[in-house]
Amino acid sequence: MVYPASVFITGANRGIGLGLVREFLKVPTVKHVIAGARNPDNAEELNAIGDKRLNIVKIDIESDESIKNAYKQIETIVGESGLNMLLNNAAILPPYFTNGAICRETLMKCVNVNVLGTAIVSQTFLPLLRKASSHGSGDHWGVDRAAIVNISSFWASIEQNEDGSGDLGSLAYRISKSAVNQLGKTMAIDLKGDKIVVAQFCPGWVQTDMGNMGGRTAAITVEESASALVKSMSKLTKEHSGGYFDRHLKVIPY
Amino acid sequence: MVYPASVFITGANRGIGLGLVREFLKVPTVKHVIAGARNPDNAEELNAIGDKRLNIVKIDIESDESIKNAYKQIETIVGESGLNMLLNNAAILPPYFTNGAICRETLMKCVNVNVLGTAIVSQTFLPLLRKASSHGSGDHWGVDRAAIVNISSFWASIEQNEDGSGDLGSLAYRISKSAVNQLGKTMAIDLKGDKIVVAQFCPGWVQTDMGNMGGRTAAITVEESASALVKSMSKLTKEHSGGYFDRHLKVIPY
């Protein structure tokens, strides 16, 4: 298995983000797990983790200034090694229905966090990812060299959309995650010269606040999802770049 | 061929929008062609068209208020017949590159016009589309009953994205148009009960200000594109709803 020496995870105070933090900390060769949270002081579960390899960094991906501040801190943490892996996980799911209230602000907020936040964080962290990639050699690509991984969703699939806005009002979330898939595909092509893998994953239907919305209990635990995701990430190489996968690295149609 | 008695086209003051206005006016059974423009006073070419079936309506799809005002005017024009066809055409292409300047505002503007504007216009006009659909009978679906057609782009295809941001900086545009495809697919499912077709079209590489960007001359004329589009729209039925097509109604992979 191939792991990053350093990984930065946004939205890491709960849900899948927190699960991924725990999962990476299980790997002895991982040196730095950097957990991004909007309010580190309130991130109780993160703060309770007693592992010196964990750094908690304040980041609000709606704010370019906050992203820049996080960059400076992470640059100090990883130093000349650069950052091997950026894991864009932070996202929101505000209910929105075709046949419901008309509210541009809700659509805007969802797109701003899920898509624009992911784009700006990715662009901002390119110098640190390039630095890490420059230490790799030859034609090797992978999360141990340099990677951007975006947490997408099954709901991003336009091809497999069968229930529209559905019971939960997924319209805003769906369009944002389809946009994330196109963002990742576009960046993957643009970053070929840097040997940076860019991949999109659906974590599955996971028992988080988001996954359990509408009073249902999701199919799998956070640990099951995070464990499968990290295993699949360890297999990422050049041919996966731009792709959209389930947690077992099975291709999902866009 | 099957045509709408009334059609409302946004961004109709130039380019493909203007071409679609001219094309629909060629059809004798079309009663109302409503051309949306941000600045009707400056829409010289529209104003020069001497056809009583043409109405020019002010609409800025970034403004909910402007959309509501346009709705009121169009309601008066189409009356109890309702609106058969909403053609979301207005869009912008601001250059944006993965490896270029970081600018959330540019991404936001592009998404606001191309995606959120399309969503809000579509939602706002649902009562008029439903009214038109209610006059149809049985299982007939089509632009002569009720339809939302979104002008998408070849660049919306995530599957077929091979050049990333490319020479023109298509990142913002690409993500916005992929989001439009998901918006259309989601709305198509949500509007099944209303028998409203929702379809997305790539107009081709057309000789417009947008198409000729970067000093190149696009492959086809506005008239060639608009003529093929209107022909394909006339063939739309239930099974096309949610789909993404080229101007000849050939499926494009999402």
From TrEMBL, chains A, B:
| Coiled coil ranges | none
Q: Which Pfam families match?
A: adh_short (PF00106)
Checking InterPro entries in the record gives: Fungal_SecMetab_SDRs (IPR051468), NAD(P)-bd_dom_sf (IPR036291), SDR_fam (IPR002347)
User: Does the keyword GTP-binding feature in the UniProt annotation?
Assistant: no
Q: Which GO terms describe its molecular function?
A: oxidoreductase activity
Q: Which GO terms describe its cellular component?
A: cytoplasm
Say if the entry is tagged with keyword ATP-binding. no
What name appears for this protein in its UniProt entry?
Carbonyl reductase [NADPH] 1-like
* UniProt keyword terms in alphabetical order: NADP, Oxidoreductase
Q: Which family does it belong to?
A: Belongs to the short-chain dehydrogenases/reductases (SDR) family.
